[in-house]
Amino acid sequence: MLEIPPPAVTARTDLQGILIEADNRIAELNRTAGGDIGKPVAVPQLAALVRLALRLRIVLSRQIVAADGESDVELWVRVEPDDTGLSLQVSGWRDHRDWPVVEDAAQESDFAQADADWLWETDSALRITALSREAGAKYGFDADELLGRPLTRLFALSDDEGGEFPILDALASHGRFDGQVAQLRGSARKVYLAANPRTDATGRFIGFDGAARLIDDSSHGAEPEGTAQTHDDPATAVDSAFGARLEKALRGPLGRIIANADSIRSQSDGPLRQDYADYAADIANAGRHLLGLVEDLVDLQAIERDDFDVAVEAVDLADVARRAAGLLTLRAQHAKVTIDAPKTDEGLPATGEFRRALQVLVNLIGNAVRHSPAGAMIWIRAERDGDRACLIVADQGAGIAEDDQARIFEKFERLDTADSGGSGLGLYIARRLARAMGGDVTVDSAPGQGARFIFTLPGRD
Amino acid sequence: MSGHQVDTRDGRTLSADRLLAIAAAVLPCDLHGGGGMVGDLLLDDQQRLDERTRFVARNRLDAILSATSEEIRDHAAQLLESRGEGDLAKKLRSYDGAARLLRQAPAFRDNGLVAEILDSARLDLIGADLPVQAPADADEASLLAQLVDSSDRLVSSAAVAMLSADSRRRAMNDQHGLTGADLDAETYYRLVWLVAAALRLGGDTGAQSDPIALDHALIESARRSLAAHDEGERAEASAARLAQALDAKGDRLAALMEAALADRRIILFTALFARALHVPYRRTRALLLADPEFLWVALRALDFPRETLAGIGYALSEADKRRDVERFASHIDVVMALSRDDAIRAIAPDMLDDGYRDALTALGGKERA
């Protein structure tokens, strides 16, 4: 849903640009800049626009960033000259951020695009202004006949089970929609339509960026993406089709972002200002971080399938631990934490899948690094306990209260909600993997006494 | 933990002799990037490309060069194979340096192709930065959609062609999939022959087989590409057709040009402008990009009302960083004070036919200031 922008505030100047009246908000902004009623407009960007309008004598609009006390605010300003002066309309009033934040709407749009069979675009009157060219040839319509025509000439819309038309609701609220069933005119094929609204800087609707996805005969009647299906755990299961779509939508673009950002950072095509190279490094790191989250979600989807299986191999847990520690060396150095891994002559034979065991240990050791203060040690000990092979990861972090010790293994749980470093899935996935291999992950800890995470697998002689 | 060994030399090996030979062979002119770095440093800021333009234009250039050279190379190799010149075909197919060879050749720089790509990229970027504004009446269709509804068949079909070309270009921009089809016939002609020549020079490694066969295959392949070229689908061509079909004059033309900018169709705007001035599209575009004052005086020469001049000048200044909106606002009254005839006279030298102008220069005549 688009946020409804607050109503515009108004002001007036005379023909010399002197402010003669202003709504409170503008008056306040102006005063902060050192001005007042009866004096020239003091907010520099507003004053510039006022001067322009007085000379050009036409309606002008512009997005500006103005200082509002300690912070900056984004405003959309419309200035209209008349015989006695200028009318100003100011709307928007959004906090200005140095880096544009990707709007949810844009992200949704990217998902829809990655998943679509073809794309379409309309203007505010729902006339088609762009259409994927190959789509016509492929799905039996003439794209040229449809450009500039109403959307309904391409799609015959159907109502859903509740008798609603998602597209109409979206039109009324200028929000996004998906799951609108439609039939391609002139053929029997059905599609799901989804779209995101385009708006101008004041929030007014200027059209839809849409996607169309053919409805498979086999999945006819199935819920479109976004609706959770029941799986083994009705409350929190992730729909596996959604997971697959997510992976497809995210991996490609993320891979490209990381590759391109890395190549910018390495300045392989020529010298670059250092700040640009640094920005590129930030972009690459953020991309890797996101890819890590995607991989967590993909793992989650895999391990929750009924047919999830692990290989049964002979592994040496001490060796796996050494490898995991090695993978995290750089991160540990960066955090000024030392990892004391099992010595090379130590071994701990067990049964499990090497790749998955490595994944569990990277998670446990990574958590330990993240939660350890600078200068701390992390001990990794290999022990045999009866018929179990135990790998213990002990840290000197803040420790975990007993009440929380069960919670941390649940999905999407994080003790520190301000910690955006992970997806909240790590321990859940680690335990599921361990259990799938016939072992477990448990914790032994108390606040102020660090934590010991114990990864067990069936022992091997 | 020891990972597997990684070859950090990208698989290329250099022997000591080769290394010494490379070091000894550096010519004075190779220093400072062959003079390029010195030239770059001395450029005025106004003359330099900003990063975004450079990135877009470079991507387009690379895309067109590789698409064209692959097309010509692969077809020529096929022809060679069918004529029993398997070795030559193989050598040709393995050659991928045509684009690089062209980029480094002085002749390539001067032949107008790069200028065309650069200008089209610059204009597209300005178009992308035009202010976005919702129409006053949300139920009113956008400009091109309205024109599609026109009862005039020529207008309607040209408007459809514009929307179609735009869809295509946008989809391609996302994937950098530009091809020669985006170039006009004359530029494409020059490009194809340059590419064929580059393939000849690079692909021939003095093999035992017949170099004449290579020439013939490349020529045939080049001719095939030329014959298949259809410039009608270009956005610029559709815009020119639409401008022609609309045949707008006076107030109607002024309103259309403003509407084109409001609908962020800068190519259509330029085409309408070009037609009104009786100047080829390319030259109009180049003048728009090079010379801020040209726009003001030319709009005056078309006898547009002050509000239209102001509106167009403002929209373009917001979108084009090289334009100074303050300067425009300060001078608008001066421009409006010019008589229409004076304005026409002022821009007349800019509007000479390229062929005529080039011939004058060739015969030693000076261009009028």
UniProtKB/TrEMBL annotation, chain A:
Query: What is this enzyme's catalytic activity, as reactions?
Result: ATP + protein L-histidine = ADP + protein N-phospho-L-histidine
Pfam families, sorted: HATPase_c
Q: Is-annotated flag, keyword Kinase?
A: yes
Membrane-crossing ranges are: none
User: Which UniProt keyword terms apply here?
Assistant: Kinase, Transferase, Two-component regulatory system
Q: Where is the Histidine kinase domain?
A: 245-461
Q: Which InterPro entries match?
A: HATPase_dom, His_kinase_dom, Sensor_HK_Regulatory
Q: Name one GO molecular function term.
A: kinase activity
Principal EC category: transferase
E.C. number(s) listed in UniProt: 2.7.13.3
Which superkingdom heads the taxonomic lineage of this protein's source? Bacteria
Identification of the protein by name: histidine kinase
UniProtKB/TrEMBL annotation, chain B:
**Domain of life of the organism encoding this protein:** Bacteria
Name recorded for this polypeptide: DUF2336 domain-containing protein
Species of origin reads Stakelama flava
Lineage, please?
A: Bacteria, Pseudomonadati, Pseudomonadota, Alphaproteobacteria, Sphingomonadales
